[in-house]
TrEMBL record:
This is Carbohydrate sulfotransferase. It comes from Branchiostoma floridae (Florida lancelet). Belongs to the sulfotransferase 2 family. GO terms for biological process: carbohydrate biosynthetic process. One of its GO terms (molecular function) is sulfotransferase activity. Its EC number is 2.8.2.-. Keywords: Carbohydrate metabolism, Glycoprotein, Golgi apparatus, Membrane, Signal-anchor, Transferase, Transmembrane, Transmembrane helix. Its main location: Golgi. The gene is LOC118429932.
């Protein structure tokens, strides 16, 4: 039922997407120098990870690390802000540091880290309501010397995600399904300014009233096209950690990460991470392999997005694309193939 509702909200002429895709693919020929050959080979290797061949998984991990290091060597790090220490979760039991990034499977990872640290077996469903109250150790509670020691000696983990898929997931969660959606609709109500009055009438099909006891105004859903237009701008009041660049949140050129997990292959990547981090006998905490919504529904969201808005997103998230081995051009091909 949810997917039917979403598809009704997101209906758009397929012809426009095909035309848009053809124009973008023409541009690809002029833009090949931007995306290095490492990204395309990376995508090919990634598809083989489901074979669960240890050597293949290790090769993929080595390639991800090399893509990141190569970017940092070539682009430099002078203008990168250091991340907030609070963003890093610390496991003293296993000597781990995890840079928490929303919409990359962070609830799954926090559940796993909590269970590992405290010997528990909580599930992600139960953890969602408890995350803010659980006693996670964060790097901002340590002294400068303690921080330095942990950054130098602990195993450091970062989890990344395809930028377009992460944006779609953030919109679906924060503006459509999550209990906090009413607050997000209110906070980012001004995103509707990006749409013309005529477009607003056709795009807004659903609205919800804030819960009793809060502001009694009605705040409609911010349509996905309005969200994408807003994210593509530089307006600070439209920015949020749930869709902020991962490269800004975790500063991978400043922090020497030891392991890179992709949300797209989260369950397949974690066994190797456990092995490298020396986590033995807790295989019960490994996430299950399952069908991901990102493989199906999320890509349908972009059928209604104009070329110029996709291009702004590409430019804004260029660093994340290049750092982590994703390819915008491949994303366009996937959209056209649906």
């Amino acid at each position: 039922m949810r997917q039917l509702q979403m598809k009704k909200l997101l209906t758009f002429p397929r012809l426009l997407l095909i035309v848009a895709g053809l124009l973008i693919l023409v541009y690809i020929g002029l833009d090949k120098h931007i995306y290095k050959t490492t990204t395309s080979s990376h995508q090919g290797l990634r598809s083989k990870v489901f074979l669960r061949n240890g050597s293949t998984t290790e090769k993929i991990q080595a390639e991800r690390m090399e893509v990141l290091k190569s970017y940092c060597r070539k682009k430099g790090t002078k203008n990168t802000k250091l991340p907030s220490r609070r963003r890093f979760i610390v496991s003293e039991r296993y000597k781990l540091l995890y840079c928490q990034v929303f919409k990359t499977g962070s609830t799954t990872t926090l559940t796993m880290l909590h269970n590992l640290e405290h010997g528990e077996r909580r599930n992600t469903h139960d953890m969602r309501a408890l995350l803010d109250d659980l006693p996670f150790k964060r790097l901002n509670t340590y002294s400068d010397d303690e921080v330095r020691i942990r950054l130098e000696t602990y195993t450091k983990l970062i989890i990344v995600r395809n930028p377009l898929e992460r944006l779609a997931s953030a919109w679906e969660d924060k503006f459509y399904y999550a209990p906090s959606r009413f607050g997000y609709r209110k906070q980012y109500h001004s995103m509707l300014e990006t749409l013309s009055s005529n477009t607003l009438k056709t795009k807004i099909g659903l609205s919800s009233t804030l819960p009793e006891g809060s502001d009694n105004k009605s705040y409609p859903i911010v349509p996905f096209p309005a969200f994408i237009k807003a994210v593509g701008t530089n307006r600070t009041d439209w920015q949020d950690p749930h869709w902020q660049l991962i490269s800004d949140l975790c500063a991978p050129c400043h922090i020497n990460y030891d392991f890179i997990i992709h949300t797209e292959t989260l369950a397949e990547d974690y066994p190797l991470f456990f092995k490298n981090a020396g986590i033995v006998g807790r295989e019960d905490q490994l996430p299950e392999v399952r069908q991901r919504k990102g493989d199906t529904l999320f890509w349908d969201f972009y059928k209604q997005i104009p070329i110029e808005d996709l291009w702004r997103i590409k430019e804004k998230f260029r660093v994340d694309y290049e750092m982590f081995g994703y390819d915008f051009n491949d994303d366009i091909r996937r959209m056209l193939g649906r």
